[in-house]
Amino acid sequence: MNLIDLLEKAAANNGKKVFLIENKKKPVTFGETRKKVLELASGLLKLGVKKGDRVALLLNNSPEFIYFYFAAQYLGAEIIPLNTFLRQEEIIYILNDSNAVALVTSSDFNQVMKDFSISRANSLKNIISTDELKDVKSILCKDILSNETITPAVPSDTDTAAIIYTSGTTGHPKGAMLTHKNLVSNVEQSIKAINIKPSDRFIIFLPMFHAFSFTVCVLIPLYVNCRLTIIKSIQPFSNILKAIMKDRISIFVAIPQVYNVLSGKKIPRWLLWLNPIRLCISGAAPLAGRGGEYF
Fold first, then answer.
1. Is the pTM of the predicted complex or chain greater than 0.85?
2. What is the pLDDT of residues 90-121, one digit of tens each?
3. Nearest to 55, CA basis, from 39, 70, 42
4. Is there a contact between 95 and 124 (Cβ–Cβ < 8 Å)?
């Protein structure tokens, strides 16, 4: 099984079921997600993206992150999720090291992309933006959408799906290649360890560019056909609490720092009583001390 299979099966089995929820926007079903992914894949193909190419994502949490991630898979291309806290020089280094042919971004990164020149990235051919970018020549996402039918790639288990760059604490960042088998087997083992049901509802506020959050909060819900609420940023945390109650979130995924902060907060009794969460998951580092004891 590969990542394309996950989306195809979800759309075939539960096409009309809601998959993605984002504040004040129309919910998106599994079937609609597949349609948007295929439209983007067709558009990327027209731009020359092909099997083995790399597509970099500089996006905050959003449905578009997921659409482009899977659109690349349908072409046999590889995704480079970029840390959204990087400086422009660091972004350029990764674009050159990975030989990325396309960069997908948004106006959230106008400041970091200011005066960016495509000529500084050796293999970069196109910058695609989900909305209007200032000072940088780009193609709008809506302008590349295409309804032309494509023949999806048939990736093998060992084909690379994504390349995750390290933080570079001991030198330049290095790319860790994750295959379809790496990601899917991680999902399947997690599901075996945790009893996830199709009725569960996830929330993602940790950055999607992190392998942990994308695997647990996007790929697992896709595999099991659960609902996912997307929060753009962890701040303000009140937005997360509101979404948990409003969307009846049952699976809460965070990192130890979040649990440690929450353990020191006085949570109203009424909120605890109405709390829909049945399972808290911590990852990326050991959960110890006050946070571990509290939760």
1. yes
2. 999 999 999 999 999 999 999 999 989 898 99
3. 70
4. yes
Task: Summarize pLDDT for 141-161 with one digit per residue, the tens.
Answer: 999 999 999 999 999 999 999
% pLDDT > 70, the chain: 93
Domains of the chain by start residue, with CATH: 3-16+29-180 (3.40.50.12780), 182-294 (3.40.50.980)
Give CA–CA dist 249/245, Å, rounded. 7
Q: What is the pLDDT of residues 35-69, one digit of tens each?
A: 999 999 999 999 999 999 999 999 999 999 999 99
Q: From CA 224, how far away is CA 218, in angstroms rounded?
A: 10
DSSP code string of 55-90 = EEE---SSHHHHHHHHHHHHTT-EEEEPPTT--HHH
Contact 90, 66 (CB under 8 A): no
Q: Give the torsion through C-alpha atoms of 222, 237, 112, 49, to 10 deg.
A: 10
Amino acid identity of residue 48, one-letter, is: G
- Residue 269 is encoded by which pair of tokens? 């009794």
Total number of residues shown for the chain:
295
Helix (H) or strand (E) holding 164: strand 160-165
Encode 59-81: b = buried (16+ Cβ within 10 Å), e = exposed: bbbbbbbbbbbbbbbbbbbbbbb
